[in-house]
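Researcher: I've got a protein sequence and the SMILES for zinc ion. Could you write out the 3D structure of the bound complex as structure tokens? I'd like something to compare against our soaking experiments later this week.
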Amino acid sequence: MTGTAPVKPAEFHVYDTTLRDGAQQEGLRLSVIDKLAIAGFLDELGVGFIEGGWPGANPNDTAFFESLKSGGPDGQFRLQNATLAAFGFTRRVGMRAADDPLTAAVRDSGAPVACLVAKSHDRHVEQALRTTLAENLAMITDTVTHLRAEGQRVFVDCEHFFDGYRDNAAYALEVVRTAAEAGAEVVVLCDTNGGMLPNWIGDVVAAAGEIGVPLGIHCHNDTGCAVANTLAAVDAGAMHVQGTINGYGERTGNADLVSVVANLELKYGWPVLPAGALAEATRLSHAIAEVTNVPPSGRQPYVGLSAFAHKAGLHASAIKVDPNLYQHIDPALVGNDMRMLVSDMAGRANIQIKGEELGFDLSDRDLAAKITDQVKEAEAAGYTYEAADASFELLLRRELGQLPELFAVHSWRVFTQSHHGDEIDTEATVKLTAKGVGQRVVGEGNGPVNALDHAVRNALAPAYPVVDRFELIDYRVRILDQGHGTDATVRVLIQTTDGRRTWTTVGVGQNLIEASWEALFEAYLFGLIHSQASPEADVEEPAAPVPAGV
Ligand SMILES: [Zn+2]
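Model: Sure. Here is the predicted complex with zinc ion in place.
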């Protein structure tokens, strides 16, 4: 079964377009903060290129590129592995590229790479763009030449390439040649409608390969073949693969980059990610799902919760003898686990590694096993620590006896009332003791969580003025057991920043406010611990800058 894969090209690109094409998914909305968080996870996965969006056309994307120029909200954000790419169109019909404001937005985005989409299907040129085939070629030449002269690397995405090739192969190939001659480093063939099958893709990529320009592939999943089509293109000589994490994208999605890279690494034996990065794929896929708030598919290849799950019984006893009899790879290669029953992602080794990352010594196997059990139990109840590092650290500290008692909460309550049905007031009361002084503080807000936040902040401020710097930047709710209606368990994730670092905490409950309170409480506790607050001292030291990563 091995030995059929082609030889890896000298240069190979893994190009992620989650933040642009993936964000087209129905119901998916990404803020600038979300995009930064996802970019950080993608960078950790080790993709070569991150397409950040379409500056100039989409205000949110413009803001994302602007934010990256200054290192994100805390000034600490840097891409370690990946090169940033900005998406854009070829210049407008009848205009010079140098005069087109959208071309300028790509040029000035701060991204070293521009990925330009060009029409390559003659009917789209004439009917959608309403121009001549010659003008479309001139638009490609002019835009690529201009951006190259301005010092940007340029990739060209040929939109509707495969449909175009079927209708007018000579013109589709002329577009590829034109882009390459103008200076495009890679010409990417796109199955924009997603209607192709692997053998068609392979034939067309091989034909385009005759031109002698480095080719890329961009597939949508409308035939359920996006990953297979991507691999067929690679087999036919493509050296650049585009996709999105977890296959996000409009309609049925894009090629799932997780499956693509896992196949290339594990089936082809090609190192396309930095060493060791693939073993983080499960964690990163799930962490990104927390940010997008799209429930991860348990049946996702490689990283799904069920990808290596086995029902107990006859089968299970054989698995105990030799697990490889029933699985296509060792799940640890992608950071997943074989499961016999309902379980979770946490393995002892993961916990030990994660604990060390956070600066805790978990080399004691018994201790690590005990913490692993706790994490499993918590995850079974709905907690998630993949995206909520701060709550995980608090759990470790609790277990290791390293949790300072900075404040003690005695009670809290929330009260919402409506006056004659038009105005709704929410008031929260929090009773706590900090540095030996009891506080009973009322906070108002535009909702229960906002009111609780104000109350706890005001109650802590006399003892710990640093809380004034804490800002809740994201609040996310997920219903866990869908189908139970209002009885369902809910999970709340809260992201907080002090302007220097950003942290995420998690709360779970059958009551939305209870779950929110738990996440809120942990957000303040974690922030105070990391601002080096002491239960005794009156003045807290400023927190040391912390490496980027949200
Ligand atoms: Zn696309």
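Model: The chain has three domains: 13-292, 309-382, 407-538. The pocket of zinc ion is lined by residues 21, 192, 218, 220 (CB under 6 Å).
Researcher: Great, I'll pass this along to the crystallography team.
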